[in-house]
Amino acid sequence: MDGPLLLLYLALLGLASGLVMSLVGASAVMVIVPGLNLVLGTVMHKAIGVSLLVDVLASLAVGYAYWRHGNVDLRQSLWIALGSIAGAQLGAGYTVVIPSWLLAISYGLWMVGAGATIWSKGLDRTKIADRFYKYVQFESHAKRVTAALVLGFLIGLNSGIFGAGGGVMIMLVLMFVLDYPIHSAIGTSTIIMAITAGSATLGYLVRGNVDVFVSALVSIGTILGGVSGAKFANLASEETLSKAVGGIFVLLGVVMTLLRIF
């Protein structure tokens, strides 16, 4: 695939990833990586590198909208950002030694697990918050800072390996570790997701695993899809959307895994 057809496909891939992000809150990586790897044959390291840069650009665009409404507070959340930067660098460096076929299998299994979770529990952030509220409490400032650093590191590690920005997990840390109100937690988590993905992107970039042109083109579609997705969110219930998207992710994960095994 090349020429105008390739450009059209990349734009549509970005549009699809943006719609998924806005409708169920899943990371663009869930669409972009299989879309590049399965259809275009892009090696896994570069597919993840592209998805990370797209996450950076799309998250900054969304985060700016939250910032304009006063729903971004980076003062306390910098502890998460510091941990995520370190974790993302380690994850990006670790993937270099993983063969592309093994990374594809690992990624496929990860998608199956994530898709199954979306299918069964959905990704409505308010509902997720309610599930965690009764179990997670940190009383002292020292415990909160330590938990934010450690959890941020793990989120960054996951981002560096699989390319996931970790927006939902960052939001939960902000709410239950640092006591952020939900709107501020969503807005701030979007900015931290950009910082986390940015750190991982840098790790992939210095190793030659980021195609900036492809990333820029896909990100345009992702931003447009993300903005448009909110208009369609009320056309179907959250449960229906979660099952549809979760089922697609499971199917893509199974295909990626089987293609590398057989």
Report on the architecture of this protein:
By secondary structure, this protein is an all-alpha fold. It has one domain. The chain is 79% helix and 0% strand. The protein has eleven helices and no strands. It has helices at residues 3-24, 29-39, 44-68, 78-95, 100-121, 125-133, 141-162, 167-176, 182-205, 212-232, 238-261. It is globular and about 55 Å long.
- The domain tally reads 1
Q: What structural class should be given to the helix and strand makeup? A: mainly alpha
Mean pLDDT metric: 80
Query: What summary fits the major beta sheet?
Result: none
Based on Cα principal axes, name the global outline.
globular
Number of strands: 0
* Unreliable sequence segments: none
Oligomer: single chain
Strand content: under 5%
> In angstroms, what is the radius of gyration?
17 Å
What is the helix content?
Answer: over 70%
Kindly report how far apart the N and C termini lie: 24 Å
Total number of helices:
11
Strand and helix order: HHHHHHHHHHH
What structural keywords apply?
single chain, 262 residues, mainly alpha, 11 helices
Outline of the structure:
By secondary structure, the chain is mainly α. The protein contains 11 helices and no strands.
List the helices and strands and how they pair.
Layout: H1 3-24, H2 29-39, H3 44-68, H4 78-95, H5 100-121, H6 125-133, H7 141-162, H8 167-176, H9 182-205, H10 212-232, H11 238-261
Helix pairs in contact: 1-2, 1-10, 2-3, 2-11, 3-9, 3-10, 4-7, 4-9, 5-11, 6-8, 7-8, 7-9, 8-9
